[in-house]
Amino acid sequence: MVELRTDKLRELRLHEPEAIAEAAVKRRRRPLVQADGQLFIVAADHPARGALAVGPKPTAMADRDDLLERLCVALSRPGVDGVLGTPDVIEDLLLLGVLEEKIAIGSMNRAGIRGAVFELDDRFTAYDVATIAAMGLDGGKMLCRIAPDDPATARTLEACGRAVSGLASNRLMAMIEPFWTSHARPGEARNEYSTDLVVRSVTVASALGATSAYTWLKLPVVGEMERVVAATTLPVLVLGGDATNNQDEALATFERALGLPGVRGIVAGRMLLYPEDDDVARAVDQAASFLGRGSPDLVSSRRLDK
Q1: CA 133, CA 127: separation in Å to the nearest integer?
Q2: Residue 300 clears pLDDT 50, i.e. is over it
Q3: What stretches of the chain adopt beta strand conformation (E)?
Q4: Average per-residue pLDDT for the chain
Q5: 297 CB contacts (<8 Å, ≥6 apart)?
Q6: Which domains does the chain have, with CATH numbers?
Q7: Per-residue model confidence as pLDDT tens digits over 123-138
């Protein structure tokens, strides 16, 4: 694991901001998908929407040094392909030198601040297509919440469609995270997890952009996951939710989905970076074992259980 030198990082940001672009240009890249056809991505784009809470801790993700240390541990584990983050996070990791031969996905629309009256106006305030391409990142991710009772949805759909087209023109992954969304009350958006509404969100998201050739979907695991993945031929990554008191049970939801046609891997953030026992390496290794990766003992144990 790389020694975490955030003091040096802060000095570089102050005196040598050009070091970020230089690190991006020099970064050793790898193919998006390797021989096993799977991806394991750690997500760290939550703070940009003001989503800092983990379980009972309302500001857990606000400590940047702590977040970076957890990310460095996760990225050092065998079986982890890369990271999903906003420019500030990706740039910190570039300066720390932990993205060599890793996948780096830039998070694009972060304007939907949690709890704001404009939460569903998910404008693109972070990465744009031109910067993702110029910095040699491997793709862009967009949140696409579809709320029939909120006119901001139309702007979000249009912006996501443009981003998908732009990324495809550069032969870069477009990762769409769709949700059918409603308002529990004014200013409180709620994602719906019924199978019918998740399926509906998949059908809308799959058709965004002038081509879907480079589009992947990031989807929640729901009860009838077979129906969800049957709604698309696009590659699917299953997402992890918040950290819970039953980490093993939460991680096991991945295993149930990973055997379905078209499901190609995992994108998870807080549940791996802030596990209940605070053992990031263990949580990441356990998730990797569901892909047949990581610790040989864990992988062998998983196969015996089957």
Answers
A1: 10
A2: no
A3: 39-43, 82-85, 103-107, 139-146, 173-185, 188-191, 215-219, 236-239, 263-268
A4: 91
A5: none
A6: 6-305 (3.20.20.70)
A7: 999 999 999 999 999 9
pLDDT surpassing 60 at residue 33:
yes
Q: Are strands 215-219 and 263-268 parallel, antiparallel or unpaired?
A: unpaired
235-264 as b/e: b if 16+ CB within 10 A: bbbbbbeebeeebeebbebbbebbeeeebb
226's tokens: 């077979």
Q: How far apart are CA 34 and CA 206, in angstroms?
A: 24
Contact residues for 234 (Cβ-Cβ < 8 A; gap 6+): 206, 212, 215, 216, 217, 262
Q: What pTM was estimated for this model as a whole?
A: 0.92
Unique residue bearing structure tokens 């550069």: 170
pLDDT at 242 over 70: no
φ, ψ at 142 (rounded to 5°): -135, 140
DSSP summary character for residue 27: P
Strand partners, 167: none
Q: What is the pLDDT of residue 157?
A: 97
Amino acid at 84: L
Of the candidates 223, 221, 294, the one whose C-alpha atom is nearest the C-alpha of residue 258 is 221
pLDDT for 203 equals 98
CA distance 219 to 101: 26
Residue 303 has pLDDT above 90, yes or no: no
